[in-house]
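Support reply, case 0932

Customer input (verbatim):
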Amino acid sequence: MLSDTDAHAERVQIELARRATPAQKMAQVRALSDLVARLSRRAIARANPELSPAEVELKWVEFQYGKPLAAALREYKRDR
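Our regenerated output:
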């Protein structure tokens, strides 16, 4: 296996994962998913400094869920 993680550290990580309760595992999954979404939004904002925070959010929706849903959301927000 190719890894940049020390073998002992990897064994500790695996043991901790095995001991974690389902709730703890789900909390970790949720935290990582949240991190990825925040980093994705930040990357969009950095690549498009002219966009407002609301436009960054719409661009993120477009990347994640497609143009039709982003367009529908844009229209919904405009009409509110």
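We compared this against your earlier run and they match. Two observations from our side: Residues 63 and 70 are 9 Å apart (CA to CA). The radius of gyration is 19 Å. Please reopen the case if you see a mismatch on your end.
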